[in-house]
Amino acid sequence: MNNTNALTEIMAGYASRRAKAEQDAIKRAREAGLKAPVYAKALLLEREALVRYGKAVLEAPDNADELKAALERERAALILEREAALKAAGIDPASLLPKYECEHCRDTGYCGDPIKRPCGCMAQRLMEAALVGTHLDERVSFEKFNLSLFSGDLMNGRAESQRAYMEKVKRAGERYCERFPDNPKPNVLFYGMPGLGKSFMLGCIVRRLIERGHNAILITAYALQDIVLRERIQNQNTLALAPYINVDLLAIDDLGGEPRINNVSSESFFSLINERTRANRATLVATNIASSELQDRYGDSVASRLLDVNTTSIFWLRGRDLRQG
Ligand SMILES: [Zn+2]
After folding, report:
1. Among 264, 269, 96, 280, which Cα is nearest to 182's?
2. Which domains does the chain have, with CATH numbers?
3. Pairing mode, if any, of strands 312-317 and 282-287?
4. Whole-prediction pTM value?
5. 99-116 pLDDT, tens per residue?
6. Cis geometry, peptide bond prior to residue 181 (ω within 30 degrees of 0)
7. Please, which of 18, 187, 240, 291 could form a disulfide with 312 given CB 3.0 to 4.6 Å?
């Protein structure tokens, strides 16, 4: 789901919730009218008064103020009559008002007068739509990051355990999100064999950033290559690639896992990473191919961009494959 679709769907949801709340209120008012006929009569008289007022103003616009004052007097009396009738029938007048899911925006998605701004419920819905758009598994988050899955034994030839190291990586990821988009090093590279938590880290960062209101896209190199290839075939310039160039944070999972097709991979990744770096936009990469292979596959310029320690934090994940239990 792209952003425009998501917004259209969200707005349609508001319209239907609002319509339902209002129709239900009309139904309750009708039922109240059966129990308290004076209430129904007062409602009818009020409507008639409004119609009469409208006609009178059209006929004598100069008398508008006077007519309005007369209407208000009449309405005030009818409202008193109505409420007394409801009270006598044991009906709470508040129970006849529309029951909106969100009382702040009355299910319109916007608050404020005269300047409208998105309601908190709208911001929440947009964020949820963005998360759905990333197809992130709900188990992927810093909150659900389970350090006990990693071995507490010292890693071969190292003075720390996989668990202690992953705790550092997790903290670095959280810090990265807190500082975003002002990280001294905007890019992050997670390198390591499959099953060590690289994709999980990308997912945690993307989720946290979306929750904090940033735009972030998580995509596999395979899917990204697919988009590039289609675009080449359809010759659409960079339209389909634009979101991946412009998004605040692009997380590319499993770089090197895509099929090798002539120079398409290297060229497309070069221009993408190049444009993002020039615009100072953050790119995260997870890969299990060694730096020499990165160079071989994508060329020196991409490899040196990806491995530039001035702009990229590099984490080398080692240890036991989590998927082997
Ligand atoms: Zn609201």
Report:
1. 280
2. 3-100 (no CATH), 134-324 (3.40.50.300)
3. unpaired
4. 0.67
5. 999 999 999 988 887 788
6. yes
7. 187
